[in-house]
Amino acid sequence: MTHPVLRLENIVKTFPGVRALDGVSFSVLPGEVHALMGENGAGKSTLMKVLGGIYQPDSGNILMGEDKAVMSGPLDAKSKGIVFIHQELSLAEELSVAENIYLGELPRKSLGRVDWAKLSEQTNAILEKLNVGFDAKTRVGDLSIANQQMVEIARALTVNAKAVIFDEPTASLTDAEKVVLFDVISDLKNEGVGIIYISHRMEEIFKITDRITVLRDGQYQGTVNTAETDEEAVTQLMIGRKLDLTRNASHHELGDVALEVRGLSCGKLYQDVSFELRRGEVLGFYGLVGAGRTEIAETLFGLRDPSAGQILLDGEEVRIHSPADAIAKGISLVPEDRKGQGLVLEMNCRDNMTLPQVDDLKAGPFVAEGAEVAIFDQYRDQLDIRTPGWKQKAGNLSGGNQQKIVIGKWLSMHPNVLIVDEPTRGIDVGSKSEIHKLLRKLAAQGYAVIVISSEMPEVLHVSDRIIAMYSGRIMRTFTSDEVNEDNLIQAISGLGSNEAA
Amino acid sequence: MAALSKAQIGPILAKQGILIAFAVFMIAFTIASPKFLSVDNVFSVVRSSAILGVMALGVTFVVISGNLDLSVGSMMSFSTIVVLDLHDKIGPFLAIPAMFAMTLALGAIIGFLVGYLRLNSLIVTLGMLSAIHGLTLTYSGGQNMDIADKEGTWFSVFGQGTALGIPVPILIFAALAAFLGLVLGKTAFGRKIYAVGGNDTAATFSGVRRARTVFNCYLISAACVATAGLIQASRSLGSQNTVGQGLELEVLAAVILGGASLLGGSGTIFKTVIGVLILGFIQNGLLLLGLQFYVQFVVTWVIIILAVWLDIAAKRGKLWSPIA
Ligand SMILES: Nc1ncnc2c1ncn2[C@@H]1O[C@H](COP(=O)(O)OP(=O)(O)OP(=O)(O)O)[C@@H](O)[C@H]1O
Ligand SMILES: [Mg+2]
Questions:
Q1: Is residue B134 helix, strand or coil?
Q2: Which InterPro entries match (chain B) (predicted)?
Q3: ipTM of the complex
Q4: How many A/B residue pairs have CB atoms within 8 Å?
Q5: Which domains, from first to last, does chain A contain?
Q6: For A402, B3, B152, B246, which has the most beta carbons within 10 A of its beta carbon?
């Protein structure tokens, strides 16, 4: 019998108003990939933060080998061989990739001078292993979110790890990047490292993990061998019911063209983009990170000036100078980076949700707080947002619940054109299918919806038409009848025919 | 089990630290000097804090929006000198609005530079501190400014008058605090200030016009400074060019003491008022103990450091931590 690298016993952790962990036990064997699953707010990240020394448990023990261990802080945990790759990125944007990876442990020459040559060399060796397209000297702030994630992962490879925690590492990775990540995980595994893997993506869980432990509302639900279970059983364990995955395929009539884009270009970011979006339609944008999808959304939302082309709303040409402008014209954008662009983390949930319409919710000279609470309650119920109340700071919510606040914020604007960029990043399976249904329902009600996603099943599932982009250009537009995984992949890798050509 | 463990005391101390420290101060002073808590003394503390307090109200807006205003001291000197000068030239009735307009213009310049051009507020207002000082000296020719007929003007009412037995400066401070408290806490504009200070990218993505919001905060700060200058001028009816010198730091101390974070996004008018009073009582207590008035410069600095430390400690939940 192999001994676990580490064991957590009866961990309890409470926050004001929330029992985040209620006597949870969990263990990892050497050389195993152990999945930790559960709905948004189930307590996964909290459990790992206890293990990583970020939170002290109210009660319960951590055992490494036979001995009780106390993780007095993140550095202590790291020195004990526990490496934590966080759900929310924690990199120093102004520093280079190399400095971030070796922060606190930079190689030194005499007199404490940093050995830059050695630093670059070591870093590039790791980056090569990860097969990424940037080098040691790149400034982290210049990298995409996906690449920043890779830097976090690179950081983990520098320590002599006993256990590595991945908290939703793939939430912002593309398929190609995922392959690299899985290789890294399999290498670690072969070296006998215990791996804890948190994700809401079932395919991944079944592809790479050996065992699955499920939490629900802070309580331990059980541990199963991956080989002996299936998605349905795990989902049942997670949410306590079966999931309805059928697509709301009701083919409602499409309305007028709500948005038309003609020959839109923005410098090198994207060129000559044209499309139409009708009321009642969900238009998917699929492509690799860097294909220009987010930049198009940002242009439509007034965050970037196009260098050429026209935007027409309801048949009339418009110029959109700022987000305030876009909002006034009935455009909403759920941005891709919830922490940076979506939320004011220090502000409470209600105020975050009503921020775009705070000028319109008036009771005399003041904000109508009652109306705000009503809006919050409506979307809390509709999106199943788990929080002790609207007064909770948005930053205290679990990652998935934060995302739902952002979605609620923009739905509550009742926009003419709703753009969602990676709408279900970090959202659990149950809520994800709810959000997909919601997007379909909104379309059926006559909303015009644009969905940008790097998850192929998601785009395939919700879209009426799909635009495939590659390197700033539209390669092809598919209807939902003609699209399949193969021709879609072909189109976004630049292999298909270029429509515009 | 009965005793609190060290781990439990830490967070309590950190969270309530400033109030505990204040309570200890108050008790110590009351024992040391029986006059300390007398009605007369309390009134005099609040009255002498009113000028600082009015300025702190405006700076609270600026700090919550994520910026600094180090120019308020020299701007206050400017307002005071200008209104005293104009008092004799065009009469108090016109002098007051004219002075407000000029001070607001200075606020608008700062607001434009920090809000619309996105220049660093520390640099801009530090520069303004000295630029406005130069402006004041140019205006006055370096001379002290005095009203000719000190007995016969109604202008003295703002600094020396009383209504219902309460000194007018206290009434102005209280009314302005109530009004601005509502603006900040209850209006859409106030909400947007918190959003901009908390995360200006997310605020922009939510349709908040960042530049305009920051601009307005500096206008409010300037209006408060003008009001403070009015009280100051009316109280003394004559002034040096440097009457506001150094006030910017005391004002900032009061705001931070009240718990507004220098990173922006948090703080309230109510807390700032508490901060102003704490600072006022401590300085007054030191005087009653017979310490020289310049000791308070050092003490004020110590208080700022203490306040900032406790603020950070409260966020971390411990007094000391190797990571942020
Ligand atoms: N610092 C905190 N203060 C207050 N409550 C918190 C804090 N951190 C977490 N919580 C609460 O604890 C619960 C568990 O959160 P946790 O982040 O562990 O969820 P999770 O399982 O990781 O969810 P997700 O899949 O959305 O990431 C949530 O209800 C959350 O709101
Ligand atoms: Mg989490």
A1: helix
A2: ABC_transp_permease (IPR001851)
A3: 0.86
A4: 81
A5: 6-239 (3.40.50.300), 257-343+417-492 (3.40.50.300)
A6: A402
